[in-house]
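Quick question, first post here. What does this chain look like in 3D?
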Amino acid sequence: MVILTLVLIYSILYCLGAPVNLPLNCTSPVSFGNVALGTASTQVVTCEAIIAITAIDGATVGSNYFEVSNSSLPSGPLKAGTSFSFHVTWNLTTVSVSSSSNASYGNISPGIKSTPLTILTTNGVAGYATLFPISLTGTEVSTNPFLTVTPTTVGKRSYFPSHCSLISTYGIRSQPLDDVLLFFV
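> Answer (accepted):
Ran it through. Tokens below.
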């Protein structure tokens, strides 16, 4: 653990932290490009051990739509300079457009997405991090038309004065906004 001390006139500031030296050098970010809803895309991640690593303990992914098999990771010690590769799949084959309010996972809609993949290590050298982050990025695309509205709620007086009408705002028809009710599903 690294401890830095900064002495000020009347107080002491302690800064505590964990090792930030990374034990691996891996492909990152891993870009999946455009992936259509209903399909899957697989990318290869290549890593090189910077130090001696006793074991690769596994990998976790921040979204269940990304898949990595722990059995594809090396099983045993790695010498510094040893390279290995494994596959990561962005699996959108069983999803449909849906939205979970205020959630990053479970929200399926076209757009840019990212999630972390974390490799867990047991290092043979002290002072190195045991969690190695890799960024997974891509764009979910829909082959069907998709409409999105932001913000998802519109108050009648939040954005438009009550004397405005739809004809002056959208050119649809003249109707005071006091009588307009919008539903977003």
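The longest strand covers residues 111-123.
The first helix runs from residue 166 to 169.
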